[in-house]
Design brief:
The chain is of the alpha/beta class and 545 residues long. The chain is 34% helix and 19% strand. Strands 11-12-16-15-14-17 form a 6-stranded antiparallel barrel. A 5-stranded parallel beta sheet has the order 2-1-3-4-5. Helix 6 packs across helix 15, helix 8 crosses helix 10 and helix 10 crosses helix 11. The protein is globular, with a radius of gyration of 23 Å. The model has no long low-confidence stretch (mean pLDDT 96).
């Protein structure tokens, strides 16, 4: 009889009564983990105190590591090993005061059988709210049940009440009363007819999104499988960032200088300094202009309709940030780029939609928005923003939407109202400039494409960008990241807690319209297009449909 060396079954301790286990997912970049660790410790202390008040105890699932200098789970392997020590039926809380890589803990959470809660501190200085939204969106895509909660210090009545509910029932039910399914649309409406026609055109002619290395910063929710994407008429061209790096080396200095001269003439401001380690330098932006040209040439080679650059892992160790290139690509008016032989202007008179951080939900949204707005004769420049933070101002809740690098210049009112600052060294060791500014007041349509229950959904809503005083704008920038573009977003008919409880991404997509009536009509066309493609459309807040 043959004998085999059988694996030893994994044994876990039983769950102590009225005890919850906590874990915290961190960044893959150790500089960020070290910088953020004191803020994380404060959040864990605040949350633990709130739990203790209800007669429960908290057991941390992994000790802080004296060698690394922090207590974050900073790799997928570490996450797997940590979860081996946690009872599989225990109530578990993922506590986040920082941006985190969701795949560090997804393996453990997939196998976990106890109730799951994700919590974050309500603060702008460190992006715990952004990390929470990415993790909960990833859990939604994975079909893992969870609850979520946020608070400044877990002493406010709302958060404490919600926490008590979760401790006793294992579930917090979010308020989604602002969400309704798309009703039947009037087929005779010009906007509906436009959306349907554009959907048919997309499926018949098909489109390609170029992806420079799929999967960025643990954003599992940002990957849409081909089986869901292809029926829309959208296909992927999977590209390597090494090819982009190689193409940059073929771009001449004179070509990069031409981009700089164009921006100078347009009134764009560069905040240069002499210290390459901490300030923006001409050499950094020179490299970024080569990336801009290289990205357009590769996109032309493959016939791309939209493109996404990952950057944060890989390229960050080779070249300055991709953000300035990304912002230029998303704007209709931008420095002209020609084919290698100089005979053709590439994507002349048009934006090439760029989906930041290769977020494929953004890719689908950006592509469709671009086509609807272009067909309606509107500026199609659209972008994602992180749902970063927010506070009330003059009686309305004003979000800080803040992308980590660039927006189309038209969102700021033009290049003469835009500027470039060095990316923070904590995240961007080789620097590189942003395309920043304060988003202009006006009417917007906001949205998010996401995966839930194995199918594609889109949330659509209306809003406006508030015109805040300069001092308030600066206060909000200083409370977050002052180098980055900011939008003072007000979402019509959607409260703070409703958005946080419902939104299935760390990113929200925004696009301007010249007035409220046009924005309403464009939203209808966009909804009709998505519905015709078979995407499940949900209207959020006050939407005139």
């Amino acid at each position: 009889m043959t004998s085999y060396l059988l694996p030893t079954p994994l044994t876990r301790a039983s769950t102590p009564e009225r005890t919850i286990f906590t874990v915290t997912s961190g960044d893959l970049r150790q500089a960020a983990n070290l910088r953020c660790w004191p803020t994380q410790q404060q959040l864990e202390a605040d949350f633990g105190s709130a739990v203790n008040r209800f007669g429960w105890s908290v057991k941390r699932g992994h000790a802080a590591d004296t060698a690394s200098g922090h207590g974050f789970i900073d790799s997928q392997r570490m996450g797997i090993e940590v979860f081996k020590t946690i009872p599989s039926d225990a109530p578990i809380v993922v506590v986040e005061a920082v941006w985190q890589y969701s795949h560090h803990v997804l393996a453990g959470l997939r196998a976990h059988r106890g109730p799951i809660l994700v919590v974050a501190n309500w603060a702008g200085d460190y992006p715990g709210l952004v990390g929470l939204l990415n993790l909960t969106a990833s859990l939604t895509k994975a079909g893992i049940a969870y609850s979520s909660l946020w608070s400044e210090d877990f002493t406010d009545e709302w958060a404490v009440s919600q926490l008590e509910t979760w401790l006793e029932t294992g579930r917090i039910i979010p308020d989604e009363s602002h969400v309704r399914d798309l009703p039947a649309l009037d087929a005779a409406s010009p906007e509906v007819a436009l959306g349907v026609a554009l959907a048919h055109q997309l499926q018949q002619e098909q489109a390609i999104i170029g992806i420079f290395d799929e999967g960025c910063m643990g954003m599992y929710n940002a990957i849409i499988d081909d089986e869901l994407l292809n029926p829309l008429g959208i296909y992927k061209e999977r590209l390597s960032q090494s090819a982009l790096f190689a193409e940059m080396a073929l771009v001449t200095d004179a070509e990069a200088d031409t981009v700089k001269a164009w921006l100078d003439n347009a009134g764009f401001t560069f905040h240069f300094g002499p210290d390459d380690a901490t300030e923006l330098t001409p050499a950094q932006v020179h490299s970024q202009f080569k990336m801009y040209i290289a990205a357009l040439r590769i996109s032309d080679d493959f016939g791309l309709d939209a493109v996404g650059i990952q950057y944060q892992q890989g390229l960050k160790d080779l070249v300055p940030a991709s953000d300035l290139a990304e912002g230029l690509l998303n704007n209709v008016e931008r420095p002209p780029v020609f084919s290698r032989d100089g005979q053709r202007e590439l994507y002349a008179g048009a934006a090439l939609p760029h989906f930041n951080e290769v977020d494929e939900g953004v890719a689908v949204d950006a592509l469709i928005t671009n086509r609807v707005w272009t067909a309606m004769g509107l500026d199609p420049a659209n972008t994602l923003h992180d749902v970063r933070w927010g506070e009330e101002y003059n009686g309305e809740f004003v979000w800080v939407f803040e992308i980590s690098g660039s927006v189309p210049a038209s969102h700021n009112g033009g290049y003469d109202k835009s500027y470039s600052m060095r990316q923070p060294p904590m995240f961007f060791p080789l620097g590189g400039g942003t395309l920043s500014g304060v988003s202009k007041p006006g009417e917007i349509v906001w949205s998010r494409v996401f995966i839930m229950d194995g199918v594609l959904h889109v949330d659509l809503g209306r809003g406006h960008v508030a015109d805040l005083p300069a001092a308030e704008t600066q206060r909000r920038l200083d409370a977050t990241d002052p180098q980055w573009p900011i939008m003072h977003a007000v979402l019509n008919g959607v409260t703070r807690n409703q958005l946080m409880g419902r939104h299935k991404a760390n990113h929200a997509q925004v696009v301007y319209a010249p007035d409220a009536d046009t924005a309403d009509r464009a939203l209808v066309a966009k909804a009709a297009l998505f519905a015709e493609l078979g995407v499940l459309v949900h209207l959020c807040g006050d939407v005139a449909v």
